[in-house]
Design a protein that fits this description.
Order of helices and strands of chain A: EEEHEEHEHHHEHEHEEHH
Structural class of chain B: mainly alpha
CATH topology of the largest domain in chain B: ABC transporter involved in vitamin B12 uptake, BtuC
Helix content of chain A: 25-40%
CATH class of the domain at 2-79 and 163-244 in chain A: Alpha Beta
Shape of chain A: globular
CATH superfamily of the domain at 2-79 and 163-244 in chain A: P-loop containing nucleotide triphosphate hydrolases
Largest sheet of chain A: 6 strands, mixed
Strand content of chain A: 25-35%
Number of strands of chain B: 6
Structural class of chain A: alpha/beta
CATH topology of the domain at 2-79 and 163-244 in chain A: Rossmann fold
Oligomer: heterodimer
Chain lengths: 249, 627
């Protein structure tokens, strides 16, 4: 089943065509990696999908519904979760409260002003934290966590709205190699269980070729190759970008 | 037509005066990122010093212009002294504390000026050779105004040359864009900042001294010009000098034409624009900030720090010990009237009212991260709401006390809609502007509000007319209000508010409508401030425009900061300490502003996290935990 369908997506900043006529699809349960050298338009493409930017032309469809140009929070309500390249958590809350916050929003209980927030959805939050291996740190402040642990918390938060699609912007950026593999293995396990479609950008080629079901390659805003990892690896245009340009990876 | 030209010229002359002050403020902000509340004091000092020099020098061209120049340089040097002694120590402090410290300077300067020059208004001499008027298209127009018209553009031109044709100017412009980078390139930052401060203070001093032939020199010059100057700087774009001139022109012309606009009627209410000259500048500001959030010619700031500038600690439920302290405080407040005399009871009543006022400001400042510099607006709306209900509709106290928070809440809904669109310094300035709108209505709409004379005879109902009864009424309402606010902070609404403060990006990404939550919180804070204002009106039996004035807004800020923004019990501690201190000081000495100002400065230097914040850290350190 197609979860995400992107057609002829374009975005320019002044004279710079950051994303040009990009089209691809993503099926439920599939891990799709979006790669490309620096400045290829990965982040712009991502921000067009999550609502941070509005495209100049083209459409984004989620489960058949046109979501082009919707705001981030509207897109989230439809069932699309998201993690950030640089972790964004609520530093003045504990790990559990961060997840509870997302659950409160999901259950539309933000206007409640009497019952203490910490008593809402405790078990559900703990279940999510257990799934990402953070339950033992549930009472710690998010501000003092190690980076890898923050990434796990972000994953738990992203799962709170029971998403069918997860957008992960460089999920392993800033992590040690061993942590990267662990986080991707965890992500893979979680999304398999829940049959979630994942689109992620990534610089680490080991992570990409080790975990993606399919890869799409951007260069200068254009989609130049897509397919299974082994096909993309063998593609001469991809090799030229990555190896011809001085052995990037 | 002739008349339009004359009005236009008057506007141009006023624009020049406004520009001199605003450009100095803008230059200082551009480089040091300090919003200098004391800039109005520099302007006032320029006028007073100018008066002293000009009247003591022999009358003539040399005496007059020499005096103006001497005053300009003298104010510049005073600015340098303040920069070196105070501001240098707090460049790294949160913006809010810088603002407060410079407000401390305002208070100190006010009392020193009073001590040196006395309370009476001073009249300066006319400028030699520029007395009388010239005929322009059949209208008489003062010669001196013509000079002022020229001064603005000339100073603008000189500043442009200074900034674009000298090495120093290039450094200043570079520092305005990215001061860390300029520092990294090996430029002596201290000297640069001090010289910029000198220039900015000189401009304000010149602006003040040039006012001598136009208007009397008074002790109210500082705060009246600073609000206008803030508006000009914000409308023009922080740090943009050309923007400041454009904005000064826009606002001065608007005011000049409003002065002569004929009255008209809207919804049966006669609107006399000529009596509401203060309002348009603030409306211009509100509109500009909505359309161009960084001002007409401003650019987004390179790195906007959080206003409180600190990593917010985790909010945890109060430890049992703190709850006991809270209960003990409540018990003291309940029993205190037994020991307090009549005067003590009045002070106590004031304190409990301020506890609610401070708690309501803390609600948006702490969990909300929105620093309001005009929270007195809602206090005043509540007070005037109650007083007007009593005065014009003969409403009983119970009804008036319901109307008070409603009036303030309505104000919160209206102003809050604009406010939540901005953040940081711009948000603070906008709240100040809205407070000034309310103040100017209270001050200028004499038929309804009684203007400066206020509204008298706002007495409590029979059953609460006894001072003890009223104290307990205030205690019950204020404690209930503060506890309700506390409850909201721990509830999902308060958490959502905090989420929007901690990470707006993440909050939006999990479906939290940040602006809407902030709007609700702002309204809620206004509501409770209004209740405090209503109670205050009945406790005093009268309302005055001072309830809405800038110092009242700063009172609230002081209470919250004194207690500590990040602690929920902070505002309560702060209100008790501050209101008590204020009361004692004003009873002991005529120069309480001086002492209060110095106290503010010392507190900012000593307790950047507030009293309760420092106590909290000490407590958790004692228990070996990191909060």
């Amino acid at each position: 089943m197609t979860v995400l369908e992107v057609t002829h997506l374009s975005k320019a900043f002044g004279g710079l065509q950051a994303v040009a006529d990009v089209s691809f699809t993503l099926a439920a349960g599939e891990l799709l990696a979006l790669i490309g050298p620096n400045g290829a338009g990965k982040s712009t493409c991502f921000n067009l999908l999550n609502g941070q930017l509005k495209p100049d032309s083209g459409t984004v469809r989620f489960e058949g519904r046109d979501i082009t140009g919707l705001k981030p929070r509207q897109i989230w309500r439809l069932g699309i979760g998201r993690t950030f390249q640089i972790t964004a958590t609520f530093a003045s809350m504990t790990v559990r409260e961060n997840v509870q916050m997302a659950l409160l929003s999901y259950h539309r209980q933000l206007a409640q002003f009497w019952r203490p927030a910490s008593t809402f959805h405790r078990e559900e939050a703990d279940k999510l934290l257990a799934q990402v291996g953070m339950l033992d740190q549930a009472d710690r402040a998010c501000g003092v966590l190690a980076y890898g642990d923050l990434k796990r918390v972000e994953l738990a938060v992203a799962l709170a709205n029971a998403p069918r699609l997860l957008l992960m912007d460089e999920p392993t950026a800033g992590m040690a190699p061993k942590e990267r593999v662990e986080l991707m293995a965890l992500t893979r396990e979680v999304v398999r269980q829940r049959n979630i479609a994942v689109l992620f950008t990534e610089h680490d080629m080991d992570v990409v070729f080790g975990h993606a079901d399919r890869i799409i390659v951007l260069n200068r805003g254009r989609l130049i190759a897509q397919g299974r990892p082994e096909d993309v690896r063998a593609d001469p245009r991809v090799q030229e970008i990555y190896l011809g340009a001085g052995g990037y990876a | 037509m002739d008349f339009v030209v004359a009005q236009f010229l008057t506007g141009l002359a006023s624009a020049s005066s406004l520009f001199l002050v605003a450009s100095g403020l803008s230059i200082i902000f551009g480089v040091s990122r300090i919003v200098n509340f004391a800039h109005g004091s520099f302007y006032m000092l320029g006028a007073y010093l100018g008066w002293t020099f000009v009247t003591n020098l022999p009358y003539g061209h040399l005496g007059f212009w020499g005096g103006v120049l001497a005053a300009t340089v003298a104010v510049g040097l005073i600015g340098v002294a303040i920069e070196i002694v105070l501001l240098r120590r707090i460049y790294a402090a949160p913006e809010l504390f810088q603002l407060l410290a410079t407000f401390g300077v305002v208070l100190v300067v006010q009392d020193l000026t009073l001590a040196i020059w006395g309370p009476q208004d001073l009249l300066g001499p006319r400028a030699p050779g520029l007395r009388g008027a010239v005929e322009i298209l059949g209208q008489r127009f003062p010669r001196y105004e013509l000079l002022l018209i020229v001064v603005g553009p000339v100073v603008l031109g000189l500043l442009w040359l200074l900034f674009h044709r000298t090495r120093w100017g290039t450094l200043v412009r570079a520092a305005t864009q990215d001061r860390e980078m300029v520092g990294a390139l090996g430029v002596d930052q201290k000297l640069l900042f001090t010289s910029v401060f000198f220039l900015g203070a000189c401009l304000a001093g010149l602006g003040g001294a040039l006012q001598l032939p136009r208007e009397p020199v008074t002790l109210a010059m500082d705060l009246s010009i600073i609000a206008d100057a803030f508006v000009v700087v914000v409308v023009g774009g922080m740090g943009s000098i050309a923007g400041a001139y454009l904005a000064a022109l826009l606002i001065a012309e608007l005011q000049a034409f409003m002065l002569v606009a004929p009255p008209f009627t809207v919804l049966g209410i006669e609107i006399v624009l000529s009596k509401m000259t203060l309002i348009p500048s603030f409306i211009v500001m509100a509109v500009v900030l909505i359309v161009r959030p960084y001002g007409l010619l401003g650019r987004p700031m390179a790195h906007a720090r959080a206003v409180t500038g600190m990593i917010e600690p985790v909010v945890r439920p109060a430890p049992r010990e703190l709850k006991l302290v809270g209960l003990a405080t409540l018990a003291v407040l309940l029993l205190a009237p037994l020991a307090a005399g009549d005067y003590g009871l009045i002070v106590l009543t004031e304190i409990v009212i301020f506890v609610l006022f401070a708690a309501s400001l803390h609600f948006i400042m702490g969990p909300g991260g929105m620093v309001s510099f005009g929270h007195a607006a809602y206090f005043g709306l509540g007070a005037y709401g109650a007083a007007l209900a009593v005065k014009h509709f003969a409403a009983p106290m119970s009804v008036a006390l319901i109307l008070a928070p409603l009036a303030a809440g309505l104000g919160g809904v209206l102003f809050g809609w604009f406010v939540v669109r901005l953040s940081g310094v711009y948000l603070a300035m906008l709240t100040l502007a809205f407070a000034q709108i309310v103040w100017s209505i209270a001050f200028q709409w004499v038929e309804v509000t009684g203007g400066d004379n206020g509204i008298l005879g706002v007495w409590p109902a029979e059953w609460a007319s006894n001072a003890y009864a009223f104290y307990y009424l205030a205690l019950v309402l204020c404690v209930a209000g503060a506890l309700l606010l506390r409850r909201i902070i721990y509830a999902p609404l308060g958490y959502a508010l905090r989420a929007g403060r901690d990470s707006p990006l993440r909050a939006e990404a999990i479906g939290i409508p940040v602006a809407r939550i902030q709007w609700a919180a702002f309204t809620c804070a206004a509501l409770f401030a209004g209740l405090a204002g209503g109670l205050f009106a009945f406790s005093k039996g009268s309302v005055f425009p001072t309830y809405v004035s800038i110092p009242r807004s700063v009172d609230a800020l002081m209470m919250v900061l004194l207690g500590g923004v990040q602690t929920i019990s902070g505002p309560i501690v702060g209100a008790i300490v501050y209101a008590g201190l204020h009361e004692q000081l004003s009873r002991l000495t005529d120069y309480w502003r001086l002492i209060l100002g110095l106290a503010i400065i010392v507190l900012v230097l000593a307790f950047p996290q507030g009293i309760a914040g420092a106590a909290q850290r000490w407590w958790y350190r004692g228990k070996g935990e990191v909060a």
